Amino acid sequence: VRTTVVRLDGDEHLERLTLHDADTGEDKEVPARFMFTFIGARPHTDWLAGVVERDEYGFVLTGSDLIANGGELPAEWSLERAPYPLETSVPGVFAAGDVRAHSVKRVASGVGEGAMAVSLIHRYRSMG
Ligand SMILES: Cc1cc2nc3c(=O)[nH]c(=O)nc-3n(C[C@H](O)[C@H](O)[C@H](O)COP(=O)(O)OP(=O)(O)OC[C@H]3O[C@@H](n4cnc5c(N)ncnc54)[C@H](O)[C@@H]3O)c2cc1C
């Protein structure tokens, strides 16, 4: 916690990591043969603030997740019908893949949701 890997060293393979302690400002070398890096998992949706509804982490709410609060639709929802699956709080705007709240966060599901979104856009364009 509060530690950053700032350097990797080795000749034929990884041998050492240099760790920076954010609290003390000190660097420490530790022996290591392997390093596992986990990146991602944070949506970059700040630019959508005030445009579509998002959850507390910034993931975009869609479909039935928009009516979770006591069965009420968001105040800005302008249509009689409930949102379609993958539809955001703006009618006709859909979200697919990792950015969508409660999505599975896998490649295959992201691709599948993308295909679903195309079909739902056709439904929106023909039925509103
Ligand atoms: C470390 C790691 C390991 C993983 N391992 C696996 C695995 O083994 N198997 C598996 O199935 N899934 C794995 N996943 C999950 C998988 O990568 C994602 O579920 C998948 O890539 C989601 O696809 P996506 O199209 O929804 O989002 P992304 O692949 O994140 O694509 C979103 C794209 O939008 C771009 N973008 C963002 N903001 C803007 C903007 N404002 N304007 C224009 N473009 C923008 C981004 O640059 C990015 O290219 C892993 C994820 C991580 C982080």
What is the average per-residue confidence, as pLDDT, rounded to a whole number?
94
Shape: elongated
What's the CATH class of the largest domain, please?
A: Alpha Beta
The strand order across the widest sheet is 1-2-3
- In CATH, what is the homologous superfamily of the largest domain? FAD/NAD(P)-binding domain
Count of beta strands: 3
What is the name of the CATH architecture of the largest domain? 3-Layer(bba) Sandwich
Gyration radius, in Å: 22 Å
What composes the largest sheet?
3 strands, antiparallel
Low confidence ranges = none
Terminal Cα span: 49 Å
CATH topology call of the largest domain: FAD/NAD(P)-binding domain
- List each distinct ligand once: flavin-adenine dinucleotide
Proportion of residues in extended strands: 5-15%
Count of helical regions = 1
Number of domains: 2
Task: Bin the helical content.
Answer: 10-25%
Helix-strand category: alpha+beta
Helix-strand sequence: EEEH
Structure description:
- This protein has 128 residues and is α+β, with helices and mostly antiparallel strands.
- The chain folds into two domains: 37 residues, no CATH class; 82 residues, FAD/NAD(P)-binding domain (3-Layer(bba) Sandwich).
- 16% of the residues lie in helices and 14% in strands.
- The chain is elongated.
- The N and C termini lie far apart (49 Å).
- The model has no long low-confidence stretch (mean pLDDT 94).
- The protein binds flavin-adenine dinucleotide (FAD).
